[in-house]
Amino acid sequence: MWNWTWSDILARCSRDGPTLCGLTGGIDIPKLWHGEVFSVFWWTTFAYFIADLIWMVALPGCVRSPKVIIQHHLATLAYILIPYIRRQYGWLMGACMIVEVNTWFLIARRSFNKNGDKPFQTGVHPWKSLRLIIVSTCFYITWFAIRLVFYPLLLIVICKEWYAYSLEVRTPLNLIAVTPVMQLIFIFLNVKWTVDLVRSKCKGRGVSKGL
Cβ neighbours of residue 211 under 8 Å, at least 6 residues apart? Predict the structure, then answer.
């Protein structure tokens, strides 16, 4: 979050809100990124995924689909090597990591409701009910906005960057050629998890533990 020029982002959002902060209108995302603390951001992210990966391997039963999560983490670790090698693409990592906001709400949703209580049902304190509603609302909003809208739109930006870099190095087979493929994989996973989420809600089981 510290690597973005938030004054410019908020100004864009207030002006181009109907077009998702200008993403559909060709906003120059790299120019909103200053990357002053990129090294701290990169190593923190790297440590986070390594620690979570070790946790998944040691305790695979903590999630419903450990193999999918492990594959996701390995793909992410490979993905973030690109901005580590080419620092001018640090913004790409920053944009992709915005999805962790939704992950935080997912974790909060589970942590605050380990008993599976429903808001305002008999025996549930009003304050807990209100907290559950706020967290769940933020979870669903960020899920839709980031995973199902922002990520596909970001793919368009990534493809443009790949095209520009291909012209620069005079070949489409370059390091950045990996990024559209990786982004498509993450979009596929987001769609898969959305289907899992909808199915679990339809069956009344709550949030899928495979996410």
Answer: 63, 106, 193, 196, 197
**What's the CA gap between 20 and 9, in Å, rounded?**
11
The CA distance from 198 to 21, in Å, is: 28
Measured between its terminal Cα atoms, the distance across the chain in Å is 23
At which residue do the structure tokens 């559909």 appear? 24
pLDDT score at 22: 46
Residue 77 class from Cβ within 10 Å (0-12 exposed, 13-18 middle, 19+ buried)? middle
Q: Using a cut of 0.85, tell me whether the model's pTM lies above it.
A: no
Q: At 33, is the secondary structure helix, strand, or coil?
A: strand
Q: Rounded to an integer, what distance in angstroms lies between the CA atom of residue 170 and that of residue 179?
A: 17
pLDDT, one tens digit per residue, over 92-129 is: 999 999 999 998 998 888 887 777 777 777 777 788 78
Identify which has the larger pLDDT, 28 or 43.
43
- Torsion angle of C-alpha atoms 30, 36, 37, 39, degrees rounded to 10: 80
